[in-house]
């Protein structure tokens, strides 16, 4: 083979190799980004209501097992956030760092560049009603802080599963629905509250473990008497008096307010009227719970 022919063959092969490799190189460079910027890829995953840094694609989507994100940044770190959805439309919102809301349409990626110059632990929300696990989608991101509890982000709901027959009392059934419908994601373990809601007048989602006091049920006897009323009456709101509850009109007024909030939902008041709406709100449960479940008179 003459030198000219050999050169032509080598150039042709080099060209073919470049065409084959360049797209992968370009893709890698694009995903990794500039060297002094840390790239974090975050994917919304509806079945567990999480933001995850794990790689989710068609080969592992159904297998699941993805870990909720646990993003820890050092103060001053430059970050390139690459956002995407693994399934349905999510909306990413990290209000305390001024990021979003950003629509994440499946098949598209969105990028945000920011500098982590604010120290603290911040919550990233999904603000598009994406699935039954939507309200679990509040991940944590910390800057200059060690403690991040990513475990609370996992959702394993099964709305249609009836409570096990071993649960017989009203509080047992209530606790079951509290977990199984996802109320726990906003109202906290044991109804202890404490979940941050950006720009909400009260700061965090209200606790429910003080609800009895707020309903004027001041002792254990009061609570038991009220439970009995719920168990034995189809519609407690029609009762003029209730055995064992001398302050029934007050209790009844509060009870009706609670039932109404569960039925119709409520929009949280803003702390600062000039800032966006709080991302978490109480949805109407009318379509998900039957009237007996809402009133606490359920035989389920
Ligand atoms: Cu969502």
Structure explained in plain terms:
It is a single chain. With 300 residues, the chain is α+β, with helices and mostly antiparallel strands. The protein folds into three domains: 1-32; 34-153, Cupredoxins -  blue copper proteins (Immunoglobulin-like, Sandwich), CATH 2.60.40; 170-295, no CATH class. It is 28% helix and 18% strand. The protein is built from seven helices and nine strands. Strand 1 (38-45) and strand 2 (50-52) form a beta hairpin. The chain binds copper (II) ion.
Topology:
Blueprint: H1 3-32, E1 38-45, E2 50-52, E3 70-73, E4 78-85, E5 90-94, E6 99-104, E7 109-115, E8 120-126, E9 138-143, H2 170-180, H3 184-187, H4 211-214, H5 220-232, H6 248-264, H7 291-295
This protein binds copper (II) ion.
Summary, kept brief:
This protein has 300 residues and is of the alpha+beta class.
The structural class is alpha+beta
Query: Sheet bearing the most strands, described?
Result: 5 strands, mixed
Rg estimate, integer Å: 26 Å
Beta fraction? 15-25%
Strand order of the largest sheet: 3-9-8-5-6
Count of individual domains: 3
Model regions low in confidence, pLDDT < 50 over at least 5 residues? none
Distance between the termini: 86 Å
List keywords for this structure.
four-stranded mixed β-sheet; Immunoglobulin-like; five-stranded mixed β-sheet; single chain; 300 residues; binds copper (II) ion; 7 helices; alpha+beta; 9 strands
């Amino acid at each position: 083979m003459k030198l000219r022919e050999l050169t032509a063959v080598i150039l042709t092969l080099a060209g073919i190799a470049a065409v084959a490799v360049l797209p992968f190189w370009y893709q890698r460079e694009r995903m990794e980004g500039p060297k002094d910027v840390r790239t974090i890829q975050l994917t919304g995953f509806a079945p567990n209501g999480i933001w995850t840094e794990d790689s989710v694609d068609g080969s592992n989507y159904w297998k699941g097992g993805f870990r909720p994100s646990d993003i820890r940044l050092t103060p001053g770190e430059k970050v390139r956030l690459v956002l995407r959805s693994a399934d349905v439309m999510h909306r990413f919102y990290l209000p305390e760092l001024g990021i979003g809301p950003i629509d994440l349409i499946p098949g598209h990626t969105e990028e945000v560049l920011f500098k982590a110059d604010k120290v603290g632990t911040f919550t990233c929300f999904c603000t598009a009603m994406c699935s039954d696990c939507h309200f679990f989608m509040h991940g944590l991101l910390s800057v200059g802080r060690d403690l991040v509890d990513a475990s609370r982000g996992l959702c394993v709901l099964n709305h249609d599963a009836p409570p096990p027959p071993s649960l017989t009392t009203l509080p047992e059934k209530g606790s079951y629905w509290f977990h199984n419908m996802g109320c726990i994601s906003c109202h906290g373990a044991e109804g202890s509250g404490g979940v941050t809601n950006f720009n909400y007048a009260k700061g965090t989602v209200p606790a429910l473990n003080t609800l009895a006091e707020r309903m004027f049920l001041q002792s254990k006897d009061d609570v038991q008497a009220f439970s009995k009323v719920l168990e034995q009456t189809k519609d407690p709101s029609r009762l003029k008096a209730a055995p064992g509850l001398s302050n029934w009109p007050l209790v009844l007024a509060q009870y009706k307010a609670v039932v109404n909030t569960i039925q119709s939902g409520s929009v949280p008041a803003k702390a600062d009227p000039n800032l966006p709406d709080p991302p978490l709100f109480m949805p109407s449960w009318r379509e998900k719970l039957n009237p007996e479940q809402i009133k606490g008179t359920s035989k389920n």
